[in-house]
Amino acid sequence: MKQDLYLYNSLSNKKERFEPVKEGYVGMYVCGPTVYSNVHLGNVRTFMSFDMIYRYFLHLGYKVRYVRNITDAGHLTDDSDEDKISKKARLEQLEPMEIVQKYTTDFHLILQKFNFLPPSIEPTATGHILEQIEAIETILENGLAYEVNGSVYFDVLKYNEKEHYGILSKRNIEDAIENTRALDGQSDKKNPQDFALWKKAEPEHIQRWNSPWGIGFPGWHLECTVMSTKYLGEQFDIHGGGMDLKFPHHECEIAQAQACNHQNPVKYWLHGNMLTMNGKKMAKSTGNNILPDEIFSGDNPNISKSFAPSVARFFMMQAHYRSILDFSNDAILAAEKGYNRLMDSIDLMIKLQPAGSSSLDVASWKAKCYQAMSDDFNTPVLIAHLFEGVKWINLVNDGKETLTASDLDVLVSTMNVFTFDILGLENSKKSDNDTERLDGLVKLLIEMRKTARDDRNWELSDKIRDELIVLGIQLKDGKEGTTYSIS
Ligand code: AMP
Ligand code: ZN
């Protein structure tokens, strides 16, 4: 279904009608994780918002190239010249690539549990060192960077003579100077707001590569410029990430891309808002966070029980991606209630009987669902419409409203499309039900086998046992009766 879609562009601070660079195609780049520790629920929120956006574009029939990188080098810690991965490798006495592998695997496993669609390309910083060196050479040739003592820095003041450094974060250069001085431990720089394109590696720095400027490693901001250009072109449609990346990371990305390609790289900048806990941003560094595995196991003092991944997903989708969302036990318990209500009526709707006429306007309800999503991916409004659908399902089931067969089809398919394909929820209640059903069936067969054995009907009892083995279900006879295991 083609229809107008509006999205909020952080560059203009306005909602704009989406007009892709190339008709029918969407190029989308999202800054991925720095893989030096487990992702917390806050990180997951940002990635989930873009998973939902990706799903909606796919549903609308766009061909989407979705690039989400893995930062496995170069992301400097706030307090030193060392990057996060090298620091962790040194502390844990591991090879940096062991750290990278461990946390990349964890990241993928977690996202799978939350039912994420994989991106089209997941490039790594370390896989694009050559391209980063080439980009630095171009920026040097264009006079917007300088080399000092084996490091190369972007010359922000020079860039700002012709372009606007601060165009995205709405800062002026004086603010930038103000903000960077405090963190600055890099005395080689001409000006404190300059940022590293290439850093000389001190002898103890483990991640290191050869370059025209000596042995070193790339600056964090550069990888995203290089990889987005390589896979999506010099100008592409959407660049996303959390709000906290707007400055300096995304600001620097714009400057680097302009310095290389002389054009604005991104049409629409989309930023997701933060997940907070106790009113404060969830963050790795402060310890104010909750890990996805703690949600699934209930093993965290901030929660009273475990929650299914889809419940956590529903909790996140109930908030607009640009609003702050505060995590609390009460909030996720309430989300679980809502999620269960939605899933109960989804289970019920396939049993509804059609009538000769409809008393409900299903077509305009469906249109409202699309309008909500096409209005800057407004999932809370969409969910309110889905609950209107829940109400209707119950009314039709109670015989208080009626729907024709074709309207019933529209209701069922619209509920399914938005709940499962676009919000990305899974019916975890259904899988619980399925497990219960399987357990009941196997126990029934065990009972029938016992009766067969009591009757000395060995043929039947062996048949039950053997056929179950073929299905991967092993029966084990013991003193306390027969138990089973599933392989
Ligand atoms: P990092 O691995 O620190 O680079 O973060 C990965 C992504 O998670 C980035 O897009 C961040 O903006 C995002 N992020 C970090 N903390 C939060 C939070 N509390 N809520 C939402 N997104 C976050
Ligand atoms: Zn990035």
Explain this structure to me?
The chain is of the alpha/beta class and 487 residues long. The chain has three domains: 11-272, HUPs (Rossmann fold), CATH 3.40.50; 276-422, Isoleucyl-tRNA Synthetase, Domain 1 (Orthogonal Bundle), CATH 1.10.730; 428-486. It is built from 16 helices and 15 strands. The chain has helices at 41-59, 84-92, 96-113, 129-141, 156-162, 173-181, 220-232, 246-261, 292-297, 309-317, 329-349, 362-374, 379-397, 405-422, 428-454, 458-470; strands spanning 6-9, 14-17, 25-30, 63-68, 145-148, 151-154, 195-200, 216-218, 236-242, 266-272, 275-277, 280-281, 325-327, 473-478, 481-486. Strands 4-3-9-10 form a four-stranded parallel β-sheet, with helices on both faces. A four-stranded antiparallel β-sheet has the order 5-6-7-8. A three-stranded mixed β-sheet has the order 12-11-13. α4 crosses α7, α10 (309-317) crosses α11 (329-349) and α11 packs across α13. The relative contact order is 0.11. Zinc ion is lined by residues 31, 224, 249. Adenosine monophosphate binds at residues 31, 33-34, 42-43, 45-46, 241-242, 244-245, 274-275, 281-283.
Summarize the structure.
The chain contains 16 helices and 15 strands. With 487 residues, the chain is of the alpha/beta class.
What do we call the CATH topology of the largest domain?
Answer: Rossmann fold
Helix content: 40-55%
CATH architecture of the largest domain: 3-Layer(aba) Sandwich
Round the Cα radius of gyration to an integer and report it. 27 Å
Number of domains: 3
End-to-end separation in angstroms reads 43 Å
Instruction: Round the mean pLDDT to the nearest integer and report it.
Output: 93
Number of strands: 15
* CATH class label of the largest domain: Alpha Beta
Q: The biggest beta sheet, please?
A: 4 strands, parallel
- Unique ligands: adenosine monophosphate, zinc ion
CATH superfamily of the largest domain: HUPs
Net shape = globular
How many separate helices? 16
Low-confidence stretches: none
Approximately how much beta-strand content do the residues carry? 5-15%
Query: Helix/strand/pairing class, anyone?
Result: alpha/beta
